[in-house]
C-alpha cells in the first residue's frame, strides 16, 4: 500500500470536497489521472454552472441533433405500425376452436409467425430509435460517480433537480416530434397485455372435468382402442401379466359413414395407459376393484403434476414414472403418489366388458385428469362415493 | 527431479496431481477388475460337445443353476424361470445379459457368452423343463421379415408405447431405483421381438394378441430404420435431440466457461501496473 491509495484507507469520513490535492487511485482500463482530479469539484455547484464537470460535457451540433430526431422518430413510427400489426395478427388468425375447419395447425403456425414477427419488429424499432436518440441527440458526458454521503433532507429536492435537468438535456422536453412518436410507438404495446389477458377469461372450468371417454350420444360405453392400430381389445386376450398398451376412446362415427376421429386436444386429454397384472398383485379397496377387470386396470396417462405423459411403467415394481419431474405412482393401489411433486393419484378409468367381450369404459374419468386447478374440489373417493354412478362421471 | 522441484509450488500443480492420480486409479481398475464373464465363456465353449436337451441341461446346471436353482424356481430373490419360455432365454443370453457374474439392479448388454447353438440348446432345455412361455410365431422370422413391417404404423405404436422409456429414436433413458431402459442401437430384430413378447426385467409385455406380429414388424422396422439415419447431432449425440439442442447446451456451458474465465482473469489482475 502506498500513500496514493488513501481513498480506501480514509473510509467514509472523506467527502467529495477533500480538495484538489487528493490523488485518485487509478482504475484499470482508464487513462492516468493527469491534471486536477475530476471529482474535485462539487457536482451541485458544477450543475448550476450548466455542466456537471467542466470539459467533460459534449453537446452535439444542432444539425446532427435534428437528423437524429428525424431518424429516431421514423423508428418509433415503425414500432407503432408493427405494434398495430400485432393486433391485426392477433385478431386475423383465429386459432384453437375458432380456427377454420381442418386447418388448426396451419392457423396456429401463421398466428405464431405474425405475432412473433410484429412484436419483434416493434421492440427492435423502439430500441433502434432509443439508440439513435442517445447517440445523436442527447449530450455526451464523461462522468465520475463518487459514493454519496448517507441520504439527508436535501436529497429529494436534489433528485428532482437532477431528474429535470436530465429530461431537459435528453431533448424530450424541447423536441416534441421525438416525444410524440415515442408515445405513439408505446400505445399499441401498452394495450397488448390488456387485450391478451382479457382473452384468458372467462374460463369454462367444466371443460377440464370431462374427456372423450364420456359415453357417446347413443349412451353406449366407448370401447378402448389401441393408439396407432385403432383395434379394440378383447378382455380375454389382454391376458399376459405385465402387459401395457396405450389406448384412446372410440370416437363417434363420422358423418356419411366415414370413420370418426378425435381431435389432437381430445386425444391428449383422454390418453390412457392400460395395464394387466395378476389380480392378486392389485392392492385396491374392494369398491375400487369395480374399476378393474381381472387385473386389468386403466390410468390416465397425463401426470397430475404438470401434465407430462406419465407412462414409464415398470412391470416388476408396478410403478408408473413421469419422466419430467420423477413423480412416481403405484399402479397397484390406484395410482397413489409414492415419490415426486405430483399432488394426487392418477385418475382411474372405470372398466367393463361389453357383450362381445371387448373392454369398454363404463363412464368418463370420475376425476379430472391432468394437473390440478383451483376449482377441482375433492376427488371421487373423497367425495364419499363408494360405487360408480354412471351419471356422475359423464 | 529438478524440473518437479522447480514447479511443485506452481498454482496448477494441485490440479495436475489430482488429474494424474485419477488416471492412474482408472487404469489400475481397468486392468485389475474381475472379468470372469469372458473367462467363463471360453470354458463353456470348450465343454459344449453334447446335443440339445442334454447339452442345454449341462449348460444350465453349470452357468445358471447357482442363482436360478436346479429346478428353475429361483432363490434368494433371483427370478424364477418357470414359464419364461425360449424367447426370454434367447433374449437374455444372446444379448449377453445372462449369465451374469454380478447380479445387479439391471444387467447391461454385453457380448454374448454362448454360441448360437448353445443358446438354442439352453432355451430348449429351459422351455421343456420349466414350462414354455411366449414364443415368436413360426410364420415370422424377424431378422428376415422386419423390412415388410408398416413403418408408419410402427412409429405411431413406438411413440405411444415405447418412446416414453426408450427415447423416440431408441436411445434409452432412466427409470426408478437405478434401473434404465437400454438403448436399442445394437439390438437385432429378433431380440427386439423377443423383448416385446417376454418383457425382460422391468419392461412391460406386448403379446401377439395386443400387437399382432405384423404390427411388431412395423415397430422393428421403425427402430432399425431410424437408427440407420445419419445422426445430425453434431459433436455429441444428446440422444439425437438434434443440433439445436446441442447448440443450446454448448452455448450455455460455453458462456459459463467464458464467464468463469473472465472472473478468473480479473481476479488475478495486479493493481497499478
UniProtKB/TrEMBL annotation, chain A:
<dbReference type="GO" id="GO:0005886">
    <property type="term" value="C:plasma membrane"/>
</dbReference>
<feature type="transmembrane region" description="Helical">
    <location>
        <begin position="71"/>
        <end position="93"/>
    </location>
</feature>
<keyword id="KW-1015">Disulfide bond</keyword>
<feature type="transmembrane region" description="Helical">
    <location>
        <begin position="182"/>
        <end position="201"/>
    </location>
</feature>
<dbReference type="InterPro" id="IPR014349">
    <property type="entry name" value="Rieske_Fe-S_prot"/>
</dbReference>
<keyword id="KW-0472">Membrane</keyword>
<keyword id="KW-0813">Transport</keyword>
<keyword id="KW-0560">Oxidoreductase</keyword>
<keyword id="KW-1133">Transmembrane helix</keyword>
<keyword id="KW-0408">Iron</keyword>
<dbReference type="InterPro" id="IPR036922">
    <property type="entry name" value="Rieske_2Fe-2S_sf"/>
</dbReference>
<keyword id="KW-0249">Electron transport</keyword>
<keyword id="KW-1003">Cell membrane</keyword>
<keyword id="KW-0411">Iron-sulfur</keyword>
<keyword id="KW-0812">Transmembrane</keyword>
<feature type="domain" description="Rieske">
    <location>
        <begin position="266"/>
        <end position="360"/>
    </location>
</feature>
<feature type="transmembrane region" description="Helical">
    <location>
        <begin position="113"/>
        <end position="134"/>
    </location>
</feature>
<dbReference type="Pfam" id="PF00355">
    <property type="entry name" value="Rieske"/>
</dbReference>
<feature type="compositionally biased region" description="Low complexity">
    <location>
        <begin position="29"/>
        <end position="40"/>
    </location>
</feature>
<keyword id="KW-0001">2Fe-2S</keyword>
<comment type="function">
    <text>Iron-sulfur subunit of the cytochrome bc1 complex, an essential component of the respiratory electron transport chain required for ATP synthesis. The bc1 complex catalyzes the oxidation of menaquinol and the reduction of cytochrome c in the respiratory chain. The bc1 complex operates through a Q-cycle mechanism that couples electron transfer to generation of the proton gradient that drives ATP synthesis.</text>
</comment>
<dbReference type="GO" id="GO:0046872">
    <property type="term" value="F:metal ion binding"/>
</dbReference>
UniProtKB/TrEMBL annotation, chain B:
<feature type="binding site" description="covalent">
    <location>
        <position position="165"/>
    </location>
    <ligand>
        <name>heme c 2</name>
    </ligand>
</feature>
<keyword id="KW-1133">Transmembrane helix</keyword>
<feature type="domain" description="Cytochrome c">
    <location>
        <begin position="149"/>
        <end position="227"/>
    </location>
</feature>
<dbReference type="GO" id="GO:0020037">
    <property type="term" value="F:heme binding"/>
</dbReference>
<feature type="domain" description="Cytochrome c">
    <location>
        <begin position="51"/>
        <end position="130"/>
    </location>
</feature>
<keyword id="KW-1003">Cell membrane</keyword>
<feature type="binding site" description="covalent">
    <location>
        <position position="64"/>
    </location>
    <ligand>
        <name>heme c 1</name>
    </ligand>
</feature>
<keyword id="KW-1278">Translocase</keyword>
<feature type="binding site" description="axial binding residue">
    <location>
        <position position="166"/>
    </location>
    <ligand>
        <name>heme c 2</name>
    </ligand>
</feature>
<keyword id="KW-0349">Heme</keyword>
<comment type="subunit">
    <text>The cytochrome bc1 complex is composed of a cytochrome b (QcrB), the Rieske iron-sulfur protein (QcrA) and a diheme cytochrome c (QcrC) subunit.</text>
</comment>
<dbReference type="GO" id="GO:0005506">
    <property type="term" value="F:iron ion binding"/>
</dbReference>
<feature type="binding site" description="covalent">
    <location>
        <position position="162"/>
    </location>
    <ligand>
        <name>heme c 2</name>
    </ligand>
</feature>
<keyword id="KW-0479">Metal-binding</keyword>
<protein>
    <recommendedName>
        <fullName>Cytochrome bc1 complex cytochrome c subunit</fullName>
        <ecNumber>7.1.1.8</ecNumber>
    </recommendedName>
</protein>
<keyword id="KW-0472">Membrane</keyword>
<keyword id="KW-0812">Transmembrane</keyword>
<keyword id="KW-0813">Transport</keyword>
<feature type="transmembrane region" description="Helical">
    <location>
        <begin position="248"/>
        <end position="267"/>
    </location>
</feature>
<keyword id="KW-0679">Respiratory chain</keyword>
<keyword id="KW-0677">Repeat</keyword>
<feature type="binding site" description="axial binding residue">
    <location>
        <position position="68"/>
    </location>
    <ligand>
        <name>heme c 1</name>
    </ligand>
</feature>
